[in-house]
Batch of 4 targets.
Target 1
Amino acid sequence: MTADVPSSCSCPASDPWSSRDSSAKRRAHLIGIAGTGMRSLAEVLLGWGWELSGSDCDAGPAEFLAAEGVRICAGHAASHVPEQTELVIHSDAIPADNPERLRADELRIPTCSYFQMLGRLMASRQGIAVAGTHGKSTTAAMLAEMLVRAGLDPTVVFGAAPLGRNSGGRPGRSELMVAEACEYRANFLHLRPQHAVILAIEPDHFDCFDTREQLESAFSRFAASLPAHGLLLVPHGCPAAARAVAASRCRIETFGLDPAADWSARDVAGKRARYSFAVFHRGHYLCDAPLRVPGKHNVANALAAAALAWANGVPPEQITSGLGWFRGLHRRLEAVGSWRGVVLIDDYAHHPTEVAAGLQTVRRMYPGRRLWCVFQPHQASRTRRLLDELASSLQNADKVVVAEIFRAREPPRQPGEVAAADLARAVGDRGTDVAAVHTTEGIVRWLETELGPGDVLITMGAGDIRRICDGFIDRLREDRAAG
């Protein structure tokens, strides 16, 4: 399967949705409102005075919006779409035969996808897009923090929630707009940013891109979409990125730890996986960057965010302040708590590069402790294509448990298709201690008997694996209440 240029939405070419005038009352219905990106979009629209309703199979994560006046419906039904709705927005997970999309067609209500809506909002603003296989949400959040602290009042939309918040949405009043630009289905081609970064290019979405050439072609089209006066940042020394930007008209600058990069991180120092470094631009010192978020991979994310912040008018002292204040995101090496003396961490990692980086970071955070990893593969297609890489990436854990594959956007498992047991076997073949249990209930029972005080447990995956950590925390609260 290949990803073609995204189709257009049913909104008229010249419609009110892209206007920066927020004084008019507008009404929209969001199908799939509980998704992280859709929740962020809802926060932005609410902040601009829109009247919203929404639905989702599991509406729980969006319940906080009800307190802000959003009518939240559980499940999907034609009756959930108010007749006075002026626009229906749906996530990529919502198929064309969804009853609410069909109802919108019946009522002749314009419809568009999440990324089509972001494109329309960015059309009348100075857009900054954060693209790449890894680190998009973190880099977008870092950049937003610096822009906000500099008083530039940006609009921000990305698919994760900062710690202490329910979403990554921020309604701004200036012309600046920061958005996470995902390559899935070539959705980033809906955006027309002035400035952008490509953090990395690695095969990931195998239900969209059969080959690396198809993937790089999508990134090439994204790079070519930037205007001649724009700025595009790419990793220094990355052949895939160099090929992708070869035909771009805009200014290209590189970033990385190599002093030869246009933007370089120098004097990198770390303690217990938290790093600081000096930001240099074309050999000239700009500022210091002390990071609170763990992981050496976040040095590159922070450097890219600093470069984009500088390009959009953030002074050096606010770059330092913003990066030093940023606390991180939910599900990005998030310290969930502890249970019976076991440290609980949750992470969104589902690609081998991310898994390896996450485990390496936790090792440095908790040296000398036993590290347990419960990994939930995300999609059978990704698991099959990256089986060996995933097995190798899990080697840094002392104990590994592979949960059943989270089949996002995929039909039920067919006979002979890759399963959790196949990945577990590949992990064990490499010498790592791996458990022969895969169901959530079985994993929890196994952990209860095997974990000990001082151990570190990390749950990893883009699905619902966090519920294991949450379950332990809930039981701790119950025990305390009962005791």
Target 2
Amino acid sequence: MNPAPVVTIVMPAYNAARYIGETLDSVLEQTFTDYEVIVVNDGSSDTVELEQALKPYMSRIRYINQENLGAGAARNEGLRAAQGEFIAFLDADDLWLPSYLEEQLKFLSENDFDLVCADAMHFGDTPLAGKTYMETYMETAPAVGQVSLLGLVSAEQSLITSGIVARRDPIIEVGLFDEGLRNSQDFDLWLRLLSHGFQLAYQRQLLVRYRYHENSLSGDKVNRTARQLRVYDKIENSFDLTAEERPAVLRAIEGRRALLEFELGKLYLEHGDFEKSRAAFSKANGLRRSWKTVVAVSLSRIAPRFLQSVSLWNVRKPHNDRNQIAF
């Protein structure tokens, strides 16, 4: 391995033994070859199987094994060990096309940006298979040009972590991933980069294959959704927004809070926790009143079991940790 590579590929792995060989093969097939690969085992329960799957690649990777601390902590461990000028993030079950690194670095060299995000094709057991990430999640705001703080906060723009190549120094400067967040750490990092004045951009080339997994049980979804709300708390309380940014950003946060509280109400409803469900629906209604929130609040008070049995909403399939919710 090159002791001073141009790119460090940081790959967190949690229970990924089944897929990681195919993912590493997609790395080794890259047309750009001046890179190092750091695989961080985040306390996987399949460590024996994972290490067996990694055996053929051990001469080509650096392997770190840590206790289970979450994806953000695993990526931070890789970042601290990285020697490359650029960081490429890749989840252990996603795949790159052979020209991925070459095209991403070419884009960064030709433009004055600190981070670039490429497009991805969904595959796996999902109705989204064959659709691209950008057409699925950014129908109202095509992914062209620069990424903005308001665009991310409002969810009109979104970034896929396995499609990111970034300069390492800005990530170090803003403090790496927030390990206090067990999900949405990537979303939080992109926002901090933007708030510090770094330049993020899209390129529309399709260079990634994003493997879709059905997310875990709805009990975990309750915790994930609640933690997403913490990111918005952080933006309001910790980000140094300009006088011009603050009104629009706070309006966008209010809208996202309404959507997330509504989603939280649905999740509590699934579990039969009618009191918490009613409280979440009430919060959503107070933030952004609509006929659905009004109906949900009313029925959660007078007929919660009936409400539990009917569908009053449409929910777009989530990507990673960020729910894209439509009222």
Target 3
Amino acid sequence: MAERTVVRPRGRPTAKRLASIAFVVAVAQLAGCTPDESPPPTIERPSPSDGGHTSSGAGPTSSPVPPKPRLTDARVRLVRIAKLEQPVAMAVRRGDPAIYLAEKVGRVVALSGDVDPEVVLDLTDEVSLGTEQGLLGLAFSPDGKYLYLNHTDTEGDTHVTEFAFGDAGLDPDSRREVLFVDQPYSNHNGGGLAFGPDGYLYVGLGDGGSAGDPMGNAQSLSTLLGKVLRISPRPSGGDPYRIPADNPFVGRRGARPEIWAFGLRNPWRFSFDAATGDLWIGDVGQNAWEEIDFEPAGSSGGSNFGWDLLEGTHPFERRRAPGAIPPVFEYPIGDGSCAVTGGYVYRGDDIVDLTGAYVFADYCGGRLEAFVLRDGRAKQHRSLGERVDALASFGQDADGELYVLSLSGPVYRLASGR
């Protein structure tokens, strides 16, 4: 199989849907793939008038640094707001009071006040449901006019798809494929989507799967696997998306210009700090270490986070990793932990003492944890005293409040415990 950008006709899949089980870090069967050599889509010159793309330099722009948190005094509790079928990602839309959630089985659901959950889109006949497959991510464009989804199809390959979204809701007839990526194995699909403060869409992709990155994808710039991508998702000149001209590998021979950061195994949830624009990535480890990676706002991109030369700060392959950026936090697998679930920096008003702290968890351990970043190091790391089974994802609303999603069904809002 080859990785490529294509538009496939719609149609009902013929492959049988796989049985759905809880998200775990799995080792899939071996297969093969080769990188694509096709020419990239149009390179975009940033323009203040183009969809909110106002950054003339590379990377998300920063804001004034807010006050430091008093994490040791923070007290939290979980308020259950809904129970869905395997909720796995959340997004909010500008000017819309609802929160939108992706169910891993293939549905997008809206929650608004005390109204029963509303199914906005149903793709259950189109997604694969292996352990790390399904509908994995969603994001709204900054102006709220488009919804973007990241899912694996019944063959296990990744699609990033666009739908128009207006006052009447989602228009199913507006469906347009933005990006297609062949997946050589069934695990490590990433699946995260987020618009940065620069107005561009960031896409998280794992290394293609199996164990130990046997194809060397994470360190190869000729493939999109094992990366965070940065694109302008609207079409131009016959291309399904455009590439920002200030992406770090634009013009480099043999490198995919969509790449923003590389050296990732399976970026399971990344986010931007709503106050500073910093990028946070939870990267799932192999069998020894889990890590949280960090890229400050205003970075020119091109960060190498080390996999598969390193697992966290520890050698994995017997090769050097010059220039690799170490995680700001790592922890060993074991004692109930198995896979990091990346979270958000808290920027809400309800839990004042948590403001500015990064909140995350482990999928198996399920404990809500937090730390503050000072001088490039994690400080005041502590458990917040709450635990959620099968904690698969976090969400953040327009007010900066955090939500916790469990694959077993519950959706919680994080509230003050005082």
Target 4
Amino acid sequence: MGVQIDRKRFEKMFPSLAKELDGRRQSVAINSVRSDVRTGESASTDHFSVYMPDVIDFIRRCDTPRQAAAIINYLETQGEITRTYAQRLRSQLKEKGVRSFGAKKEDGYYLEKGGH
């Protein structure tokens, strides 16, 4: 026994879910590399209400190069970053280390920096 619902009504009620069920992907382009800590910090916003973390933000949560490499691999596999960009990130990780992407973002980082 299931619930029957008209396709158009379903799409109107749940547009994102309808797109996901149709197999259409939604993604956000990530096209920046912050190799200088000061530049990266100055690019951050005071309010994170509409902020979408990028690969650098995820890497900055890592403790080890192995964790950072896993993040890069995953986002590349998911199509969230390009192969070229992933290679640049891996190169920076290998040559300069995980902290070259910026200071570690600890728990509560966004609450503290966002002023909430």
